[in-house]
Specification:
By secondary structure, this protein is α+β, with helices and mostly antiparallel strands. It has two helices and eleven strands; from the N terminus they run H-H-E-E-E-E-E-E-E-E-E-E-E. A hairpin with a 7-residue loop joins strand 4 and strand 5.
């Protein structure tokens, strides 16, 4: 290999990778996603009941994994056994109950019910207690989450 051409080939490769990476990042989030999310409420007041029966009022700030919050307005879920992941808007939910290691019963504001599996990256609830303290609670440790604030759209 000609040593004179080596830096030129490295520069060309770096440029190609940055263009490919930039295109991939741009296509990762659809342009309409931000507009759609802006139509939904965040920081919803809820009554959380733990498996031990203790309950308290909190503000649900969003969902994610133990490392970080993923969404403030939606939880990614799917029907048990179905590989297709859908967004379930938090402000459309009245109650989440009957939580198992695999899924939970979602009761919606329109009174419909669906058993949904929450994807692993959305199984941590990010909450703010009434005292203002930020906390993370794993979905598997709760008995129910009942949204108590009314949401107007």
């Amino acid at each position: 290999m000609n040593l004179f051409l080596f830096p030129i080939r490295v520069a060309a490769l770096a440029t190609a990778l940055s263009v490919i990476g930039g295109a991939g990042a741009a296509s990762f989030a659809p342009a309409s996603a931000a507009g759609e999310e802006a139509q939904h409420a965040s920081s919803l007041t809820a009554k959380i009941t733990l498996l031990n029966g203790a309950s308290r009022t909190v503000a649900l700030e969003g969902v994610g994994c133990t490392a970080s919050i993923c969404s403030r307005v939606a939880v990614d879920s799917r029907k048990p056994g179905d590989p297709v992941i859908t967004k379930t808007w938090l402000d459309s939910i009245a109650t989440i109950k009957d939580v198992t290691k695999d899924d939970a019963l979602f009761v919606f504001r329109d009174r419909t019910q669906r058993r949904l599996a929450v994807i692993p990256l959305n199984r941590v609830l990010y909450i703010k207690s009434q005292s203002g303290r930020d906390e993370k609670i794993n979905l598997a440790t709760i008995k129910s989450l009942e949204f108590i604030s009314s949401v107007s759209r």
